[in-house]
Amino acid sequence: MVEKFIIIIYIILGFSFALSPIEGFDVQIMRVLIPLLFLLWIVIGIINKKVYVAKGFISFFFVGIFLWSTVSLFYSDVISWTARKLIFFYSLAPLLYVLVDIFKSNKKSVDRVIVALVYGGSLISLVGIIQFFLQFLISRDSVALIWLKLMPFFLGGTFSESVATFNSWYVHVAGIDIFRAIAFFPDPHVFSYYTGLILPFAVFLYLETKEKKWILSTGLLLLVDILTFSRGGEIALIVGFFVFLWISKPITNIRFKHLTIVSVIIIVFFFITIGNAVSERFSSSFSSSDKSVTHRFVLWKEAIGVFKKKPISGVGLGAYPHEVDFSADYRKPIYVHNTYLDILVEVGMIGLFMWMGLFLSSFYIFWLNRKSVYARAGIVSLSILMTHSLFDTPIFSIHVFLVVILIFSVASYYEQDEINISK
Predict the structure, then answer these.
(1) Residue 336: which of 257, 214, 232 has the closest Cα?
(2) Which of 82, 180, 299, 316 could make an S-S bridge to 188, C-beta 3.0–4.6 Å?
(3) Helix, strand or coil for residue 22?
(4) What's the predicted TM-score (pTM) here?
């Protein structure tokens, strides 16, 4: 029952909607489903007199992150903002322990949950591709108007208003404004994170099973990630590709050739379809004349200045926007555009140590178990996550956070001493 619940969650994750029980208050459906799932898991465990709690470094760092973040309640200047961020964490974090227990109880559960993740990612990628190319059939403004009407259902009334006010839906390339692929996500960068993290699992599912449907999934995920025009996502994909080459079988492997051919066809088709928009967007990442690039340098410099004031503790989880703009409200999107700096300024060096411990211990455990198909996929996925995080911050995206929790859960499952991973 619990496993089926989890499978449904990962299939519908990209399509999840929000509840708005009262005006000005939105609750994403996953923040209701995950606590219910956790409660169900606890009840079943009590009935069966067996509740397994994951051990090891991943569990240590995972718990440490949330305990230290909770401490920031005592020194944050905006306690209510910190509390809201903590509620976000605590409503979703228990999923890791449910997943590890399920994986430990039945090895096949890992396959089924990851397959569900890739199915869900492929379906929402198709939506994003349709949304993107629709603008060339019925006009960009018409598609944007449709999406503005859809967003309150998927994001909630209050959050959708904030997204509409501060949106990054458009990109100016090749002399035109293009509506980027976003599907039902708040912005293209979050969508790029989501598809980029899932892509390696689709690739390795094909390499492991030889089933052609995973080539289709790979193509959909790769194409829509490109269509987000997220430069951080593009750079992360390049890094992920080289990591993939590093840990994969020799290039003579026929399935590897198939994937390479599919990737090249997609990229060539995309360039032929809308010219050099992608290359122009990518090359602007290294241009000092690009306002987005120079603005990031300003944000990073400002964040380093704040960090120097409170290097150990930070200003408090979720309190950074208030630190740099006292007039800002909770919904105003003020952040550093760098996950590591965002962590440093809000929860200090101790918080960053915990997060890096979680990332690096997961990477190390995957490396030790690299004979497993999902460990190899996990290495590439973490490489994409850690690279993209140099340019954006995905921690408080429900879609991305739940995928990251799944990756950490697989690593934690591998870490359990008595488990012998052979696949």
Answers:
(1) 232
(2) 180
(3) strand
(4) 0.88
